[in-house]
Every structure is written in structure tokens, then in C-alpha cells.
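Severity: low
Component: inverse-folding endpoint
Summary: output formatting inconsistent between runs
Steps to reproduce: submit the following C-alpha cells with default settings.
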């Protein structure tokens, strides 16, 4: 994978430590099966508990409390889906595809379609000239100041944390992922159709057995909360102050992986639910490393520990970083450029 998107582009020879990371790419069928069991079984168990509570008239607040935990397991299921997209959960391509389609249906995400977009993200991360491929809309300060007012407003709406985490999950998982995107091919279109049909089949089955209302009361908060957690993880993994962006001519894939992907150091319980995805710099260096091996790779390769970690409290500062400043080489806030806008306005009028 990494070799594929760095071919002919690397600015320097791959360092010796990079070669050392290859041994961590080996999938384990046993570990994969155990992860599927310890993710899906608790998730379905919580579903059964919530159905019981709704039908017995238990306060809905208890159902919502259980939904938070179920959403955590849904995030973990998404990580298994994500590994299948990279072909890293199983050695067998067919096994990855089967589990990917099943887990993709559970997380409302089409396997082949999302895989195409996500691999494009890996191939272009940190490249200013190839933005917009499976990433979060990011503008430079210069672009923002030169943009029409309507475009600036749209950008502010997209980057608003309340809308991004509150409305974003519904837009992405309930609406956008039900359709193909530009560049979709036959397999991508089929994956969208099959996932949509799978979701419809689940809705019809649950409606016939437990009632449509019960399904909505349980599934809706789980997918919205799980989606918000997933969006947040994806956001903080690339949107932090000292991230990496460069023009295509200067872009280096190894630097983009190491410097443009964070090491999100989470408490152990959250690291478990998020499937070690916080070790994101390692994931971008070697996308075929299974999630359960990322920590061992980090522990045994000293160079990977040189990346400055982002702690949970520190990560919330990322919500107020909006634009890439090409001069300072860091993300900045909207408020920090008000002075520049005033200066530009005065220059235009005077």
C-alpha cells in the first residue's frame, strides 16, 4: 500500500526504521476472530438489552445511557471495517471483503465505495494540490481571504464544531453514504446498493419483530453518537496545529504520514474502543498493519515515538483551528486573521 502511493514520489530514500515496520503487517486470523467476537457480541447484547427496556417501559434515559456504550462498540466495529478496507484484518482478500460488507452494513457505510475514497485520502494526505479526496475541507489563509463571501460562509458552516459533530453524522451516515460519489465504478456502485439493501432488510426484519418505532429509538442515537465519535477521531488525526501541508512539488509522503497524522494518546479504555487508531502516524506509514499490532510497532520502533503526542485535553483545541497558514506552517483560527482582513479592506479602499 505505502509503496504504491509513494512510488516515484519520495524525496529521499526510505529510512532504515521504515523497513523495520514491515514485519508488523502480518494479519492474524485468530486475533481478527477474537476482535470480531468482542466487538459484535457486546454490541448485539446491548441492542437486546435496549429492546427489553423500551418494551418494558423503562425510562428512555436508561436506553440512551446504554446507547452511549453501544456507540463505542459501533466505533470499534468501524475500525474492523476500516482494517478490511486496507486488507489488513485477514490475509485473505475474500475474508476482508465479506467481513467488510457485513460490518459496513452495521455502520451504514458501503465497503468498496468508502475504500476507494479512503485510499485516495491516504495517497494525498498533506498535499495542498490534491485536497478534497476523502478528507475534511481545509482552506489556506490566502484562499479564505480571497474567497467570495458565500464561500467563506459555507466554509465556516462546515468547520463549525456543533454542526460538524451534531449534524454531520446524520448527513454523512444517513444521507451521503446512501449514494455513490464522483469517480465511482461498478464495484463501488454495487457496494452502495448492497449496503442500502442490507440496511433496508434489517429495518424490515426489526420492524416485523420489535416494531419500527423501537428500531428508530435505538438505532438513531447509536448511529448519531457513534458517527460523531468517528468524525471527531478523523478530524483530530489530521487537524491539529503543527500538522503537515505542502504544495505537490514539495510534498513528501513519509513526512506527510509522520507529521500530518497525529499520535492521539487516549486513555487505555478509549484506545481499546477506538482500535488503536490514535496511533495514526503509524497507520499512515504502514496502512496494512492490523489495528491490534499498532501499539507493539510503536513500542518497538524508537523513531515512531519521536512524534509529539496529542492528549485528550489538548485535542479539544483543534476545534478552534480552521485554516492552514502557509507562511507560519501551522493551523490558525478564524479570529487570528481578522487583522489581515481589516488590513486588506483598508488597502482596497485607501
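Observed output (run 2 of 3):
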Amino acid at each position: 500500500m505505502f509503496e504504491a502511493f509513494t512510488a516515484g514520489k519520495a524525496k529521499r530514500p526510505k529510512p532504515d526504521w521504515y523497513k523495520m515496520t514491515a514485519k508488523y503487517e502480518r494479519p492474524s486470523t485468530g486475533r481478527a476472530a477474537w476482535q470480531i467476537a468482542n466487538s459484535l457480541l457486546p454490541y448485539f447484547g446491548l441492542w437486546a438489552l435496549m429492546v427489553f427496556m423500551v418494551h418494558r417501559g423503562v425510562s428512555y434515559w436508561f436506553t440512551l445511557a446504554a446507547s452511549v456504550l453501544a456507540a463505542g462498540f459501533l466505533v470499534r466495529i468501524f475500525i474492523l471495517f476500516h482494517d478490511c478496507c486496507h486488507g489488513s484484518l485477514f490475509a485473505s482478500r475474500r475474508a476482508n471483503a465479506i467481513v467488510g460488507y457485513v460490518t459496513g452494513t452495521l455502520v451504514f457505510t458501503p465497503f468498496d465505495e468508502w475504500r476507494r475514497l479512503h485510499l485516495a485520502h491516504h495517497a494525498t494526505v498533506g498535499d495542498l494540490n490534491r485536497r478534497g479526496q476523502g478528507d475534511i475541507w481545509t482552506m489556506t489563509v490566502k484562499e479564505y481571504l480571497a474567497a467570495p463571501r458565500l464561500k467563506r460562509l459555507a466554509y465556516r458552516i462546515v468547520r463549525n464544531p456543533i454542526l460538524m459533530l451534531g449534524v454531520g453524522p446524520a448527513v454523512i451516515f444517513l444521507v451521503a453514504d446512501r449514494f455513490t460519489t464522483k469517480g465511482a465504478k461498478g464495484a463501488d456502485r454495487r457496494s452502495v446498493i448492497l449496503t442500502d439493501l442490507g440496511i433496508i432488510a434489517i429495518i424490515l426484519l426489526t420492524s416485523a419483530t420489535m416494531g419500527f418505532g423501537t428500531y428508530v429509538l435505538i438505532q438513531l442515537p447509536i448511529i448519531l453518537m457513534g458517527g460523531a465519535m468517528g468524525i471527531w477521531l478523523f478530524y483530530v488525526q489530521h487537524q491539529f496545529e503543527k500538522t503537515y501541508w505542502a504544495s505537490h512539488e514539495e510534498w513528501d509522503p513519509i513526512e506527510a504520514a509522520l507529521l500530518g497524522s497525529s499520535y492521539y494518546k487516549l486513555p487505555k479504555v478509549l484506545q481499546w474502543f477506538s482500535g488503536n487508531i490514535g496511533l495514526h502516524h503509524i497507520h499512515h506509514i504502514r496502512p496494512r498493519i492490523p489495528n491490534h499490532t499498532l501499539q507493539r510497532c510503536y513500542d518497538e520502533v524508537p523513531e515512531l515515538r519521536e512524534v509529539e503526542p496529542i492528549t485528550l485535553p489538548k485535542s479539544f483545541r483543534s476545534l478552534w483551528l480552521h485554516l492552514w497558514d502557509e507562511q507560519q506552517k501551522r493551523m490558525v483560527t478564524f479570529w487570528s486573521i481578522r487583522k489581515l482582513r481589516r488590513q486588506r479592506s483598508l488597502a482596497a479602499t485607501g
